[in-house]
Specification:
The structure holds three protein chains of three kinds. Chain A is α/β, with parallel strands linked by helices. Chain A has one domain: Rossmann fold, CATH 3.40.50. Chain A contains six helices and eight strands. In chain A, the strands form two sheets. In chain A, strands 5-6-7-3-8 form a five-stranded parallel β-sheet, sandwiched between helices. Chain A has a three-stranded antiparallel β-sheet with strand order 2-1-4. In chain A, helix 2 runs parallel beside helix 4 and helix 3 crosses helix 4. The two termini of chain A are 33 Å apart. Chain B is mainly alpha-helical. Chain B has one domain. The two termini of chain B are 22 Å apart. Chain C is mainly alpha-helical. Chain C is built from nine helices and no strands. The chains are: A alpha/beta, B mainly alpha, C mainly alpha. Chains in contact: A-B, A-C, B-C. The interface between A and B is small, with 5 and 4 residues.
Chain lengths: 212, 213, 219
């Protein structure tokens, strides 16, 4: 089986500026890698490239052997949490999850996450009580938890998280870590960008450092 | 080498075209037999400029589709060059039209279907150039320019058909009488060809400039 | 799958709409203002039906422009489109679903505009259904093709200024044919060749927009 994520000699430029440059990165099953580097070193760009949201200027990105930018079907295997959370502020937490579970493309015979799963996950990120409240009333940390819940809704084999600890309290970080460990045990790989030193110490993962 | 030849060739053709328009072509009479005045000789740059601008927009339309399929930067450069040169030609049309209109109709501008639709076309392509100029990321810029070149081409058939669709009040209908005199026809086609040579030269030059960036 | 995504999008947008009203209410307010100004400037009976047709379509276009910008902005901001794309949703399907949802919202906007126009310009009741047909036909085309220039403009640094200008390319063909088709209906000529041209524009311009959408929404 091809690696979950393979990046070779990749470069992405924005006009005259180099967004990111990386020679090689490979993620195998069960592997979790932290992405570190100063501001502007291209962590977000690299994650967007891996998710197929951006096409590289040069080099290749492969998810399960396929180019995620040109073959969007492979994105079904990806759980992506971006720098912007993608929540609808006028909808409640539950409605947000329901919407995303409805529109997510499915393979043949695959079942969408039902109401029980949505409730279970809301409970897991400790948002059960706030599930009927509109997201506009949420704090940054609660929004981050809800966005994480959206990723948890689907059993993705490649998890890409951009600064997921922003605004999270200690309990939130523990939820995140236990989720990542659970997925790693199930054979998924994760690439997580972070500035959070405490998070890095707790999770025991490989580190890739991006230079400016 | 090719470029210098083309520059020389287009220059000679254009000068000859001016001579033909001023000296060789006889005076004009429209289908009702009305004398259209000497100012109407501007027609020999007005119409070739319009036709060549349509040709540029057609080329941008085709190359735009091509770029969206193959994503080669050289196609983007071609699309952008065609759009710019086509728009400059459209400016010539818009400026030369009123000069004659003032002499023939007594007014610089009337809200007649072809004038109105051509003004819309000019604005639509101007908007496209502004769009291109205001996007920084090279890849996004190329994609959006190509998509817009395809979409904007919808205005070209509207201009071409406007006279037939809504009836021209003032714009001369190109009828058999109009092109009756072979000298008028010859001058018009010669000038169209001269403008074509100049257009090809300008698009080539513009592409070279873009590549060197 | 197409139907499921379209239904989810319409459900989500209508739910948002009942809570904020931002796409419909702003549009309705503007369109009624335009109709009122026209009705004041050209009193019914004093002028021909082309003024009623012009008032109707200027009102619809002004309102549509506002609705389009809002509806695109909702998905563009906050990384929402990016999130949908990251789930593997085909951008073309997303565009189609959004167009359907926009059309559903636009119905709420077109109906009061049409009724106001019929009321202030004293349009005979018998001609309102025909006029409604033309309005629907124009609405379909605007919902299909209208969002594309807004998405194009959204990448620009000067989108507020540029977007209305870019929308011209879509609005002009629809405006011209829709006004002519409406006038023909009002003058009792029934569904004319202008109406057929409008339907053809729906098909050609709307279809082109759908084909171009995946390339535009790529990132």
């Amino acid at each position: 089986m091809p690696p979950l994520l393979q990046i070779d000699n990749v470069e992405r430029r924005f006009g005259d500026r180099t967004g990111v440059r990386l020679d090689h990165l490979e993620l195998e099953e069960g592997e979790t890698v932290l992405l570190r580097g100063p501001n502007g070193s291209g962590k977000t760009t690299l994650l967007r490239l891996a998710a197929g949201l951006l096409r590289p200027t040069a080099g290749t990105v492969r998810v399960l052997g396929k180019d995620p930018a040109r073959e969007p079907e492979v994105r079904r295997e990806i759980g992506y949490l971006g720098h912007e959370l993608g929540l609808y502020s006028e909808l409640t937490a539950r409605e947000n999850l329901e919407f995303y579970s409805r529109v997510k493309p499915r393979g043949k015979g695959e079942k969408p996450p039902g109401p029980e799963k949505i409730e279970r996950i809301l409970d897991r990120v400790e948002l059960s009580e706030a599930a009927g409240i509109r997201v506009e009333a949420f704090s940054r940390g609660m929004k981050e938890r809800l966005a994480l819940a959206r990723v948890m809704l689907f059993d993705s084999s490649l998890i890409l998280l951009d600064e997921p600890t922003t605004g999270l309290d200690q309990a939130g970080i523990e939820i995140l870590i236990s989720y990542l460990k659970g997925r790693a045990a199930a054979g998924a790989a994760a690439l997580v960008s972070t500035h959070d030193g405490m998070f890095q110490e707790t999770i025991e993962a490989g580190v890739v450092r991006l230079e400016e | 080498m090719v470029e210098r030849f083309l520059k020389f060739f287009a220059g000679v053709l254009l000068l000859t075209g001016i001579f033909l328009a001023l000296e060789y072509s006889p005076p004009f009479y429209d289908s009702d037999g009305k004398y259209l005045g000497e100012a109407f000789r501007i027609f020999f740059m007005h119409v070739p400029a319009a036709w060549n601008s349509f040709l540029c927009f057609l080329a941008a339309f085709v190359a735009g589709i091509g770029y969206l399929i193959n994503r080669k930067p050289s196609w983007d450069i071609f699309v952008a060059s065609c759009l710019e040169v086509g728009w400059v030609l459209a400016c010539l049309v818009i400026v030369s039209g009123p000069i004659w209109a003032r002499a023939a109709w007594g007014a610089y501008w009337t809200w007649e279907p072809r004038l109105t639709s051509f003004l819309v076309l000019w604005l639509v392509y101007l908007a496209g150039l502004i769009l291109r100029g205001s996007i920084e990321d090279r890849e996004t810029r190329a994609r959006f320019t190509a998509a817009y070149a395809v979409l904007a081409f919808a205005t070209v058939p509207i201009v071409v058909l406007s006279i037939h669709l809504w009836g021209a009040k003032n714009h001369p209908k190109p009828g058999p009488d109009f092109f009756g005199d072979p000298r008028i026809r010859a001058t018009l086609f010669f000038n169209t060809f001269a403008f074509l040579a100049a257009t090809v030269y300008l698009v080539g030059k513009r592409m070279k400039l873009e590549r060197s960036r | 799958m197409t139907f499921r995504v379209v239904r989810a999008m319409i459900g989500k947008d209508l739910l948002r709409e009942t809570r904020t009203g931002e796409v419909v209410l702003g549009g309705v307010g503007l369109s009624l203002t335009v109709i009122l100004i026209f009705a004041f400037a050209f009193p019914a009976g004093a002028v021909g039906y082309e003024h009623a047709a012009a008032a109707l379509w200027v009102a619809i276009l002004v309102a549509t422009q506002v609705s389009l910008s809002r509806s695109v902005e909702i998905e563009r901001s906050n990384g929402r489109l990016e999130t949908l794309r990251s789930l593997g949703i085909d951008p073309g399907l997303f565009y189609l679903a959004k167009s359907c949802s926009l059309f559903a919202s636009m119905l709420l906007l077109l109906l009061p505009t049409l009724l106001a126009c019929a009321f202030f310009f004293q349009i005979p009741a018998g001609q309102v259904p025909g006029l409604a047909g033309v309005v629907l036909l124009g609405g379909v085309g605007l919902a299909l093709a209208g969002p594309l220039p807004v998405w194009l403009g959204s990448a620009s640094k000067i989108r507020e200024v540029l977007t209305p200008m870019l929308s011209f390319v879509i609005f002009i063909p629809f405006l011209i044919t829709a006004v002519m088709a409406s006038r023909d209906i009002l003058e009792g000529n029934g569904f004319s060749s202008a109406g057929m041209t409008l339907a053809a524009f729906d098909f050609v311009v709307g279809g082109t927009a759908l084909l171009l959408a995946p390339a535009v929404l790529e990132d």
